[in-house]
Design a protein that fits this description.
Elements lengths: L10 H21 L16 H18 L3 H32 L4 H6 L5 H20 L3 E3 L2 E3 L10 E2 L2 E4 L7 E9 L11 H22 L3 E8 L6 H18 L3 H25 L23
Length: about 300
């Protein structure tokens, strides 16, 4: 439910709870049921009745896991809010596509004209590098794994990031980012996890052997345009959150929510750029306005 900027946090969720009670209480009482509306605002604020349900549910889970209730509750809110952000992001992107142009969404997300797909990739790479630099000291963008060999016609192999000490102390790990539109016509009939897994396998075939030659490891970071991560990406995000939590002396669930939120906003900005961004290649006018005898350069 969308909350107006002039209203306080929680007021829209409370109003939604009241409307649900008015609509469903009579029918539920006739059936002997209890109506508990779970209302949430797009900014992530849950209604009081939903909070009470989550608190009670977290108590049972904490007993089962033998973990603190606060840790379980933070993890629960983190997972719920991440699902909410993904749903809102997908709705915003689809609405933006309808407003901007009357054309399929996958065309805007996959069209390479204007360099927007590359800018989307770089936006996510930079966000991932900024997060990694919080926990690790040696973070490098676009490291060269293999130099080109002109005689054997072997091209250079360049990754997106290199981070030292991720999976093993004093060992470099190379990362390569791939953003895929899982709703594209070529993927729409396949499961999202299967699409992510196949791309991760392709990345490993391309980079792993070259990384091993320089005594390093390789991890593909594959993500969909609406924020779903591959298995390798999830493992790295989990480890990164633990490292940042130890550095900041915060709970792991709290830091995990922060890391996921930063990455999700980067994905949303990057994907929105492909939809709303201009694909016109702008040219700067070259020449001297006073008529001096310098050549007029034109592409």
């Amino acid at each position: 439910m969308l909350r107006d900027a002039s209203t306080s946090a929680g007021s829209a969720a409370y109003a939604a709870e009241c409307r649900k009670h008015e609509a469903n209480d009579t029918k539920c009482q006739e059936l002997g049921w209890t109506c508990i509306p779970l209302a949430v605002e797009t900014f992530g604020h849950w209604g009081k009745e939903a909070q009470a349900v989550f608190s009670r549910l977290a108590s049972f889970i904490a007993i089962h896991r033998a973990s603190p209730k606060s840790s379980v509750l933070n993890e629960m809110y983190s997972r719920l809010n991440m699902s909410l952000v993904r749903s809102v992001a997908r709705a915003i992107l689809h609405c933006a596509m309808v407003v901007v142009a009357n054309s399929p969404l996958d065309i805007a997300l996959d069209c390479r004209k204007g360099g927007l797909v590359i800018q989307r990739h770089n936006e996510i790479r930079d966000a991932l590098g900024d997060l990694a630099s919080i926990a690790y000291k040696e973070v490098l963008k676009e490291p060269v794994i293999r130099e080109p060999n002109v005689q054997n016609n072997v091209p250079a192999l360049v990754a997106d990031l290199s981070v030292c000490g991720v999976w093993q102390s004093q060992t470099t790990t190379f990362f390569d980012v791939r953003v895929v539109d899982s709703d594209a016509s070529s993927y729409v009939q396949r499961d999202v996890n299967a699409v992510l897994s196949s791309i991760e396998h392709f990345k490993k075939q391309k980079y792993s052997q070259a990384a091993e030659c320089v005594h390093a490891s390789f991890t593909p970071f594959v993500v969909t345009a609406d924020g779903a991560l591959g298995v390798e990406g999830k493992a790295f995000m989990r480890l990164l959150s633990e490292k940042i939590a130890a550095t900041w002396h915060k709970s792991n669930s709290e830091v995990m929510g922060y890391v996921r939120a930063r990455l999700m906003f980067a994905i949303l900005r990057a994907t929105n750029l492909c939809i709303r961004g201009s694909r016109v290649k702008w040219r700067r006018r070259m020449g001297i306005e006073d008529g001096a005898g310098l050549p007029y350069m034109q592409e």
